[in-house]
Amino acid sequence: MLGYALTLGTEEAWWQFCVLIFARLTVRERGFLAYMALMSLNESQAYETADKAVFGPGRRAAS
Questions:
Q1: 5, 16 in Cβ contact below 8 A?
Q2: What is the pLDDT of residues 23-52, one digit of tens each?
Q3: First-to-final CA distance of the chain
Q4: Which residues have a Cβ under 8 Å from the Cβ of 16 and sit 6 or more positions away?
Q5: Residue 58 has what pLDDT?
Q6: Angstrom distance (rounded) from CA 62 to CA 59
Q7: Model pLDDT for residues 10-26, shown as the tens digit of each residue
Q8: Are 22 and 30 in contact (CB under 8 A)?
Q9: CA 39 to CA 11: how far, in whole Å?
């Protein structure tokens, strides 16, 4: 399913991947996956990605 999401690159494909990992992975496993994905980005990219994941697009965390 990860290959499917990467190949298509659509929002829908990524949401389907999200549903799959929610059903198949534990909270701990999903946390490690999220952590390692953020670690693969530079600091500003990681912050921006985490900010969008937690607060939603168009909203920013209070500084």
A1: yes
A2: 999 999 999 999 999 999 999 999 999 999
A3: 37
A4: 1, 4, 5
A5: 73
A6: 9
A7: 999 999 999 999 999 99
A8: yes
A9: 22
